[in-house]
């Protein structure tokens, strides 16, 4: 098979526009999420099944027959990590995170409770309380149920040292459009997981490589691929993001940085969105997050326990600046590289 010229795919440190646009029909994905949340808002849960991961998670089936993954955690930080990771992906226009929303589980019809909320849960509330040990008034995460998914492997560029993706022929002279299609999404994956401090995906493989040298040949933890839709990558189980992951930065930041420092090809739209955030005053960015928080929650959730702590918010802003610094470093490096190789 003929090899493909790397210049067809990257323009200095950004993927070319025709490649970028082919990955992400942004408006259609935003519409898909809005329509999904609208359907859920009008639905009742009438049946449950085991599935969707951990022991207390359940698959909910609505009165229209749609399947939904319900993710229950005793630790509120994991719920918020999942939801805020989704919100950040929406702000950055990264469409690989499954549609996600927040809702309150309610198994009684006290006067203090919303009748609409109780009616939504009425058919399944007792079994969720008795068998799954769900507590009433607990905020949970709902995610869209996707079918026909398969594990995915780490691209060769990131399996061995140096783990890198540079706009140079040896990194981008690939044999198929499918490989490029995946690498574009991997550049977003590294950005998003760096921002959120997610330790449950690529970092998980890197940690376990110390005990199992074959880990980088294994499927990536919490990363799946659709068997349709151009084999789009799906970033699942993001609950370690922004909360638990930030507490582990002292231990694992060197791994996060090794991936970021090795990345020098970016999606232009992702970086433009990060730049836009970086120019905001802290209160403006906080307001943006709150607006997205409210927009994608099925019902108003006003508990102050759901706010991002100031410390975490500041860490996020610092990590945004670090990514933009990396983009500038790459620009300088490959401007010089391009000049040298054109002589």
UniProtKB/TrEMBL annotation:
A cellular-component GO term for this protein: extracellular space
Superkingdom of the organism of origin: Eukaryota
GO terms (BP aspect): cell-cell signaling
Record-linked InterPro entries: FJX1/FJ (IPR024868)
Protein's UniProt name: Four-jointed box protein 1-like
């Amino acid at each position: 098979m003929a090899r493909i010229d790397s210049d067809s795919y990257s323009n200095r440190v950004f993927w070319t526009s025709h490649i970028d646009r082919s990955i992400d029909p942004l408006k259609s994905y935003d519409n898909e999420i809005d329509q999904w949340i609208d359907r859920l808002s009008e639905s009742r849960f009438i049946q449950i099944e085991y599935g969707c991961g951990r022991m207390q998670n359940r698959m909910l089936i609505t009165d229209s027959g749609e399947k939904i993954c319900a993710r229950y955690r005793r630790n509120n930080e994991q719920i918020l990590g999942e939801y805020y990771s989704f919100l950040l992906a929406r702000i950055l226009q990264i469409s690989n995170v499954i549609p996600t929303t927040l809702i309150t589980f309610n198994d009684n019809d006290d006067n203090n409770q919303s009748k609409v909320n109780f009616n939504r849960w009425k058919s399944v509330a007792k079994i969720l309380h008795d068998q799954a040990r769900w507590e009433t008034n607990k905020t949970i995460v709902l995610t869209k149920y996707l079918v026909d998914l398969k594990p995915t492997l780490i691209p060769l560029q990131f399996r061995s040292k140096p783990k890198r993706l540079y706009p140079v022929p040896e990194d981008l002279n690939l044999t198929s459009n499918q490989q490029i299609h995946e690498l574009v999404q991997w550049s977003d994956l590294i950005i998003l997981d760096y921002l959120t401090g997610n330790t449950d995906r690529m970092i998980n493989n890197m940690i376990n490589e110390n005990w199992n040298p074959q880990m980088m040949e294994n499927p990536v933890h919490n990363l799946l691929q659709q068997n349709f839709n151009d084999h789009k990558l799906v970033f699942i189980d993001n609950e370690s993001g922004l909360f638990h992951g930030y507490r582990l930065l002292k231990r694992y930041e060197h791994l996060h940085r090794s991936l970021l420092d090795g990345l020098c090809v970016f999606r232009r739209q992702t970086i433009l969105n990060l730049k836009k955030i970086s120019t905001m005053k802290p209160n403006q960015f906080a307001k943006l997050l709150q607006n997205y928080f409210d927009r994608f929650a099925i019902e108003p959730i006003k508990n102050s326990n759901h706010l991002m702590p100031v410390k975490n918010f500041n860490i996020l802003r610092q990590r945004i600046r670090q990514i933009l610094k990396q983009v500038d470093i790459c620009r300088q490096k490959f401007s010089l590289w391009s000049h040298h190789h054109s002589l």
